[in-house]
Amino acid sequence: MSESYLLLGGNIGETSVLINNATELIELLCGRILKRSSLYQSESWGFKSENPFLNQVILIETTLEPEELLKTILSIEQKMGRERNATGAYQSRLIDIDILFYENIIINTETLKIPHPLLHKRRFTLMPLNEIAKDYIHPVLLKSINQLLTDCDDELIVKPYQH
Description:
Layout: E1 2-10, H1 15-29, E2 31-36, E3 40-42, E4 53-62, H2 66-79, E5 96-102, E6 107-108, E7 113-114, H3 123-133, H4 145-151, E8 158-160
Helix pairs in contact: 1-2, 3-4
């Protein structure tokens, strides 16, 4: 068994319901959820959108290898109606699931990068991650999540989601 931190998010439709549905599919297809953060609301990052995003970080226990985990979460996104644009530009979305960490391994292939290469630059990722893993050490940057959050230059407002 391996442990992996995943970030879930979206900003189209009933996002809290969609995130909950995604966690159910993850538990069914990927592995048991060990921890989950609260939901956090934030502005869009990297593009402009009228709709705020909701995000949550979960820790799962899985038997899937990293590439297999990626294929499975991409299929979950697709089953839930996620459409990706051909350019790869940031856009509003129903659901997005990213692998943040997989154990302490470092992967840098064309299709998969672990740890997620932008997580330390995004407050919307660091805040929910800090809630459930503040002492986790980033295997590349060699800083705790709490320290990465303290050092983060991202000025977007991220706050606990109030239903």
